[in-house]
Design a protein that fits this description.
CATH topology of one domain: Rossmann fold
Structural class: alpha/beta
Strand order of the largest sheet: 3-2-1-4-5-7-12
Protein name: Thioester reductase (TE) domain-containing protein
Organism: Streptomyces stramineus
Strand content: 5-15%
Bound molecules: NADP nicotinamide-adenine-dinucleotide phosphate
CATH architecture of one domain: 3-Layer(aba) Sandwich
Shape: globular
CATH class of one domain: Alpha Beta
InterPro entries: FAR, FAR_NAD-bd, NAD(P)-bd_dom_sf
């Protein structure tokens, strides 16, 4: 059992959605310094970028109580997880670290990007693990994904992945390898944290990301623009065909729920192992997509079970949704008993009505979140 011991924490991925929320939660719930390892960009050094993005996230999430903590307790290490030692010169390393939170990753998924994905998610995890050992960390928390189980359907327990079901894509493959790698580490406590599909903040709805639910929004928006250019108001009259089962569950979970659960596991000294950071109230795909199309002002989709039922316009959308395709057919129910045992029952129960999902999407569209995230990240190497 390892609880925070007063020594500083080290967070990777703090310029991103999940790592940023974890860093803010650590500032709120602990008293030690929080080291954030992040990349410089061609426009902005990590030393400026990290506090800027954390300050914006804190403001977006209504976490005014941590705003003063950012300049006071955040220490930035300029580095890159793909480099040996994460590219941080020895002289700049802190003397010691109590707990390492590894959230940095590549969220690409295509075969053609395999080398880059493996470099970030497998080799990068090895480098972060090496740093954790070197700095004497007693706990390492790897942010993985609940979808690491690949093609498996039905009840998914908090257990290591078995090889009998293949991964859906290279991203999932790389997450499997990262989980296996950290499981072997000689660190007192290794927790593998598996979030569902992370969405914006549960109260403010803000979401500095283009991944998951929001990639659906972006793909459908781009598709609508193209169809309108070619066929005018076609989508006002015809429901677009989508290959999938509307009863399939998609595990949408707010980013603050994920960060609160992650940090709470550490605070209560939860033992090493696998923890689902998932919503016990999973959403149905049919409801989520109806909310999405509603927010975009187009008709609810027409669900089909056979590709032959798609016309050429439907098929063009399917091509865009190649990442999401598998998840629209594989119904998964995530058992989060271990997490609930340590975090309590209420935390992971976040009912999301179709109206509420629509509000998340409307907020994302209103913020122009995709443009903002892309602009903030544009100059990052490898992104
Ligand atoms: N979003 C979801 O729905 C979801 C669901 C389940 C699991 N997860 C997992 O949660 C973790 C974080 O995902 P996210 O949604 O927060 O993604 P994100 O917003 O894209 O953040 C990724 C973070 O990783 C950093 N990073 C990438 N490559 C790096 C490198 N070479 N060196 C240092 N930092 C690097 C990025 O830094 P830059 O700012 O420099 O790019 C960014 O801070 C990932 O492990 C992901 O697999 C996410």
């Amino acid at each position: 059992m390892t609880r925070p011991d007063g020594r500083p924490a080290l967070v990777t991925g703090a310029t991103g959605l999940v790592g940023g929320a974890i860093a803010l939660e650590l500032l709120r719930r602990t008293e030690a310094d929080v080291y954030c390892l992040a990349r410089d960009t061609s426009r902005e050094p990590a030393a400026r970028r990290v506090p800027r993005l954390l300050t914006r996230a804190a403001a977006d999430y209504g976490m005014d109580d941590v705003l003063d903590e950012i300049p006071a307790r955040v220490r930035v290490l300029s580095g890159d997880i793909t480099e040996p030692g994460c590219g941080v010169p020895d002289a700049l390393l802190p003397a010691e670290i109590g707990e390492v939170w590894h959230a940095a990753a590549s969220l690409k998924y295509r075969d053609r990007d395999r080398a880059e994905i493996e470099l970030h998610n497998v080799t990068g995890t090895r480098h972060v693990a090496g740093l954790a050992l070197r700095l004497g960390a007693r706990a390492l928390d790897l942010v993985s994904t609940a979808y690491v189980v690949g093609e498996r359907t039905g009840l998914i327990t908090e257990e290591p992945v078995t090889a009998d079901r293949p991964a859906n894509n290279v991203y999932e493959d790389s997450k499997r390898a990262a989980e296996a790698l950290v499981s072997e580490l000689p660190v007192d406590t290794v927790r593998i944290l598996r979030p569902g599909i992370v969405i914006g903040h549960s109260e403010t709805l803000a979401a500095p990301t283009t991944f998951g639910l929001y990639s659906f929004v972006d793909e459908l928006t781009a598709f609508r623009t193209k169809v309108e250019a070619k066929l005018g108001n076609y989508l006002d009259h015809y429901a677009i065909g989508i290959l999938g089962d509307p009863a399939t569950r998609g595990n949408l979970v707010p980013v603050d729920t994920v960060a609160t659960a992650a940090v709470r596991l550490s605070l209560v000294g939860a033992p090493g192992g696998i923890y689902h950071l998932t919503n016990t109230e999973a959403s149905r795909l049919g409801e989520a997509l109806a909310a999405l199309t509603g927010a975009l002002g187009i008709r609810s989709p027409r669900w089909v079970s056979d590709r032959a039922e798609l016309n050429s316009i439907d098929a063009a959308l399917s091509e865009r949704l190649e990442f999401q395709a598998a998840y629209m057919l594989q119904d998964k129910v995530f058992d989060a008993s271990r997490t609930r045992r340590h975090c309590g029952d209420g935390l992971l129960t976040v009912p999301l009505s179709p109206e509420r999902i629509g509000e998340y999407i409307t907020r994302y569209l209103k913020d122009g979140a995709a443009e903002q995230v892309v602009a903030a990240r544009k100059a990052a190497p490898g992104v």
